[in-house]
């Protein structure tokens, strides 16, 4: 597996991110979805990465830089490889990248319910713990906020 930064020009990356965006919109109650579309990911403070096995896309993920911490965005394994470690490898990469930026903490916002169970389990396995509001996100019945100390 090779994880490298993407400029969002690869059709496979675009298709996986569009699938992710569509599912997040579909399975989130109105007003609770904070997924970024392609234009939202093309910001100077966001790095997007893709995990590849040769020509096969395995996963995508992004790191958004804030003042003092990194935020995990757009984490998604390709449907054909879910449960095979690509998401774990991507999360490890994003955490390592946050350390390279000098961050001592990473945070994320996600949803809850059946579609989010695998991601919630992954974050729990890495030691993420619930946290308070950040960057306009508010925890609630659906929205869950987590942080991980990486210092």
Describe the protein's architecture and organization.
The protein has 151 residues and is an alpha+beta fold. It has a single domain, classed as Aminopeptidase (3-Layer(aba) Sandwich). 30% of the residues lie in helices and 29% in strands. A 7-stranded mixed beta sheet has the order 1-2-3-4-5-7-6, sandwiched between helices. The model has no long low-confidence stretch (mean pLDDT 96).
Task: Chart the SSEs and their pairings.
Layout: E1 2-5, H1 11-26, H2 38-41, E2 46-53, E3 56-65, E4 70-77, H3 86-100, E5 105-110, H4 117-126, E6 129-130, E7 144-149
Parallel strand pairs: 4-5
Antiparallel strand pairs: 1-2, 2-3, 3-4, 5-7, 6-7
Distance between the termini: 27 Å
- The total of helices stands at 4
> Given the helix and strand composition, which structural class is it?
alpha+beta
Question: What count of domains describes the coordinates?
Answer: 1
CATH architecture: 3-Layer(aba) Sandwich
Strand order of the largest sheet: 1-2-3-4-5-7-6
Beta content: 25-35%
Averaging pLDDT over every residue, what do you get? 96
Shape: globular
Helical proportion, percent range: 25-40%
Biggest sheet character: 7 strands, mixed
CATH topology: Aminopeptidase
Rg calc: 14 Å
What's the level 1 CATH class?
Alpha Beta
What pattern of helices and strands is seen along the backbone?
Answer: EHHEEEHEHEE
Number of strands: 7
For the record, what is the CATH homologous superfamily label?
Gcn5-related N-acetyltransferase (GNAT)
């Amino acid at each position: 597996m090779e994880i490298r930064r993407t400029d969002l020009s690869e059709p496979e990356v675009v298709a996986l991110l569009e699938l992710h965006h569509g599912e997040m919109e579909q399975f989130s109650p109105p007003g609770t979805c904070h997924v970024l579309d392609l234009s939202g990911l093309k910001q100077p403070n966001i790095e997007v990465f893709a995990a590849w096995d040769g020509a096969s896309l395995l996963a995508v993920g992004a790191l958004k830089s804030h003042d003092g911490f990194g935020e995990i965005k757009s984490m998604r394994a390709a449907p054909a490889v879910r449960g095979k470690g690509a998401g774990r490898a991507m999360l490890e990469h994003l955490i390592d990248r946050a350390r390279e930026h000098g961050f001592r903490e990473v945070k994320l916002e996600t949803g809850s319910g059946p579609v989010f169970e695998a991601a919630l389990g992954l974050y729990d396995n890495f030691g993420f713990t619930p946290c308070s509001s950040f960057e306009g996100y508010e925890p609630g019945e659906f929205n869950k906020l987590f942080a991980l100390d990486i210092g």
